[in-house]
Amino acid sequence: MIKQWHRFRSSLFPGAFVSILLLSFASLLFFILFISQDSTTVTQFDPRVYALLKFTLYQAFLSTLLSIVVGITLSWSLAHQQHFKGRGVLVALFSSSLVLPTLIVVFGLIGIFGRNGWINQLSMYLFDHSFGSYLYGLTGILIAHVYLNASFASRSLLHTFESIPKEKYKLAKSLNFTIFQRFLYVEWPALRPTLLSIASTIFLLCFTSFAIVLVLGGSPAYNTLEVAIYEAVKLDFDIAMALKLALIQLAVSTLLVVFSSNFRTKLTNLKISSINIPWSEPKHIKQIQMAIISLFALFFISPLVVIVIDGIGADFGRIVSEALFIKSFFTSIILATVSSIITVIFAVLLSDTKRNFTLKHRLEENKFSKVLNIIISFSGNLYLAIPSLILGLGFFLLSQRYEAPLVVWSTIALLTANVLMSLPFALSVLSPAMQKTAQRYDKLIFSLNLSKLQRWVYCEYPYLKSSLGYVFALSFCFSLGDLGIIALFGSDDFSTLPWYLYQLMGSYRTSDAAGVALILLAITLSVFILLPRLFRSRSAKNN
Predict the structure, then answer these.
(1) For residue 408, which of 421, 389, 395 has the smallest C-alpha distance?
(2) Cα 377 from Cα 355, distance rounded (Å)
(3) Under DSSP, is residue 169 helix (H, G, I), strand (E, B) or coil?
């Protein structure tokens, strides 16, 4: 047994070091929160805290339910309508919803559904009637969450639809199943195992939602725990209340992660497969499916169109010459690049270590393997249990105890949050790919006695190149658009593009905000769509 562990030491130790580093950070965060609390105030569970917790859970439940219903309906329609023009582009856009900065989405939705949005303007023009500010409050929160999460759910479920064997559809056809029977007996059994994982992921995202609720909440009645923590620290400087809320959210988030610990939502690149069902849908069903696709496509694309149209009219010459924009732009790009590099390195090292405990010809038979695999996996998914505002609060308390320039604490806090935020998604992409490379090449590599560097250069990197590009792009976009920790540390001396955009929106500089939103959208979509393709094309040339 010792000989086996020694044989794979170069694969075990780097990932184990990263895991210990991440778990040590989590322990330090818990320790800081624990020693900073005042037991007399933290233990008091007043009605305001109960109301915040109740609304946070309520809006997360409604958002998840609506997102899943819309996601199933949309993916079902897309799965059975495979040959209309623009389908590939549409699915790619739905995939990009995962990385769209939430503040951009909010800005676009305000342009459509806000008091001066397109819908109200059209209604005033046609009927001389305005719907008012219906976007602010629970309605706006649900619309924004469905916008982001239904498209994510539909893309994930579409992959499940496409994995259903064609023979099952042929059998359903031979048995003369109705559309409902086909869904009930063929498609639903395939969807059901993944629905819980997708729903739990969406619920966690909605439970810890910050930017959407901050902008669209409209009043304290619609605050969630995250927003209340931000207001307690930034506006009221009520650290005791912030700690109380943070500990409650931490406890609930941990319970949710434990409850949904078996979820395995796999992220794929933009490659689209096809069911190839050998018959067409009935005409009326086809019309319903195309109507569903058209309506959601209109709902999804309209806010992006608003951003483009409003942004084009901005004075870019003045915007890009402003000192705060220049500082925010370069800060965002540098932080996103550095955090993406760290995320890729951490994900590779953790995935390399994890596969030792899941492969029979390695260490899977060892009695400690399952426990160690759980520990490694948990360390890579810390962000699901520790949302960004709680991370921010921890760093804020550290900055109060240990004096250092605010820029230093802000940089460390943002890099840490960006890496932890991206790591679960990076692992979901790289872990299965690295598992396959080990299954495919281990025996050959062992027989040739290749070094760790030689293994990476000749076996791992050529196979993982496309996935590495996708993970880098994903992490870059996550980091670029995050408004979590910067909301606590943001200032004129330290600013990012999302924080700068939020300031412009708050000061009603709508034209400048539209220009900055367009720049942020262009960078995000360019990196997310073009960078993985660049890696794939180079990989194809090398092969």
Answers:
(1) 395
(2) 11
(3) helix
Location of structure tokens 């309906």: 73
Long-range contacts of 530-536 (CB under 8 A, 24+ apart): 531/469, 531/472, 531/473, 531/476, 532/269, 532/270, 532/466, 532/469, 532/470, 532/473, 534/469, 535/465, 535/466, 535/468, 535/469, 535/470, 536/269, 536/465, 536/466, 536/469
| pLDDT band at residue 328 using 50, 70 and 90 as cut-offs | very high
Closest CA to 495 of 391, 410, 413, 433: 410
Residues 196 and 260 sit within 8 Å (Cβ to Cβ): yes
Task: Please provide the CATH number assigned to the domain covering 47-226+263-312.
Answer: 1.10.3720.10
pLDDT one-digit tens code per residue, 69-85? 999 999 998 888 877 88
Helix (H, G, I), strand (E, B) or coil at 24: helix
pTM attached to this predicted model: 0.83
Q: Mind listing the pLDDT tens digit for each residue in 160-210? A: 888 788 888 888 888 888 888 888 888 888 888 788 878 888 888 888 888
3-state secondary structure of 278: coil
- Please say whether the beta carbons of 465 and 535 come within 8 A: yes
CA 225 to chain CA centroid, Å, is 19
Q: Tell me: the pLDDT tens digits for 32-58?
A: 877 776 655 555 667 888 888 899 999
Cβ-proximal residues to 444 (8 Å cutoff; 6+ apart), any chain = none
